[in-house]
Amino acid sequence: MKKYTKIIALLTVMVFVLSAALTGCSGIKTSENTSSQGQTEQKKEPVELVVWSHLTDPEIAKVQEIANKWAEQTGNKVKVLADYSDFQAFSTAAQSGKGPDIMFGLPHDNLGTFQKAGLLAEVPEGVINKDDYVPMSINAVSYDGKMYAIPISMETYALFYNTEKVKTPPATLDDLIKLGKEVGFQYDVNNFYFSFAFISAYGGYVFKDTGGGLDPNDIGLNNDGAKKGLELIKDFVTKYKFMPADINGDMAKGNFQSGKIGLYISGPWDVDGFKQANVPFKVAPLPQVEGKPMPSFAGVQAAFVSANSKHQQEAWDLMKYLAENTGLPLFETGSRIPVLNSLLNTDEVKNNEILSAFAEQAKNAIPMPNIPQMAAVWTPAGNALQLITSGKVQVDKAADDMVNQIKQGIETQQ
Predict the structure, then answer these.
(1) Any signal peptide, and if so, which residues (predicted)?
(2) Using CA of residue 273, residue 369, residue 388, residue 199, what is the dihedral sign?
(3) Residue 274 and residue 202 share a domain
(4) In the list 66, 91, 161, 387, which could disulfide-bond 393, CB 3.0-4.6 Å?
């Protein structure tokens, strides 16, 4: 009996020990599962991204629609809101934690000011492949050799021609002058944005592109090429008398729309108005000068992630999705010219005769300088053009005075 009692006691102890061991193992396993599950839940915890956009309301609605698809796939939320604020308002909101995670559709020439204020997050590797884009658009969103935004679309100006007056658009500058004498040629001649094309055609430039950025200390608006271009612009008014010295954009546009002139330089923003007015027109790239394309100024609609966003990873993931999926919808909704080479080669773009002409011109365009010093250029340049076209000041003096005034303006920014 004692023997059996000892055996039972021994078995009881063994069962107790084994149970304790199993309970311990089970406890550890449960703890691991809980920890792992907690980590998984943490990774999947949804965030809400806020996007501010400077695009039109129909375009914003389209971006929201596309962003919703990303949200469905990732479990996150996105709000795309219209934004009409200026730089200071964005800066204040961003630094107070009330700004957006993403700014979508901002003109690229604002980037230098935003970057200088520390508001831009640098684009991480792998978000886009630069080779997929029109090179000009990559330059437009780069600052000191680094990318701080992603190009979304591009715009520039080109040559409108009345198809009842002009059967074949001018291919060269000589053709433009010859046709201009016959059918009339006008544009906003004292606007530096448009006249820059004739200055750059001979080698003029605003700030020297060093390959790693723009040098604000090297201004090329009074070199020999720039002065040659300014003489040509003067001739448009004083020699060929294509337009009066006091012409503005509305006057030139009205004269083209009414059929008084057959040639007119402007951008895609005038297309819908001419269509509604039943103007018989087409668009062609600017004519070549000395066998080379004429480089116009280009604008790029850009998107960036705020350096103050608390959801950088999710924001860049959304940005990548939008960059890959908004090109054609914005082309169809807002006539925005794509910056992806693959989209430029689609039938939708190629078959649009008017916008494809702007796209062709944009490939040879120069992005407006995106550094803060550009703010010191517009007024002196516009004043110089007015003095030149009115015949009040000779080109050499006007160009030199313009550059001196730009340099003085830059010094006041320091």
Answers:
(1) 1-20
(2) negative
(3) yes
(4) 387
Q: Are residues 90 and 151 in the same domain?
A: yes
Which residues, at least 6 apart from 117, have a Cβ–Cβ distance to it below 8 Å? 87, 91
Residue 337 tokens, joined = 């010219």
Beta bridge partners of 249: none
Domain hosting 188: range is 157-297+370-413
The total of structural domains in the chain comes to 2
Task: Give the largest Cα separation in the chain, rounded.
Answer: 132
Same domain, 165 and 292: yes
pTM of the model: 0.85
Q: What single-letter amino acid sits at 351?
A: N
SS3 304: strand
- 413 pLDDT band (50/70/90 cuts)? confident
* C-alpha span between 156 and 191 (Å, rounded): 14
Which range, of 12-16, 92-96, 160-164, averages the lowest pLDDT? 12-16
Q: Are 99 and 93 in contact (CB under 8 A)?
A: yes
- Tokens for 412, please give them: 């006041």
List, in order, residues 6 or more apart from 405 with CB less than 8 Å away: 379, 380, 383
Report the chain's terminal Cα–Cα distance, integer Å.
Answer: 103
DSSP 172: B
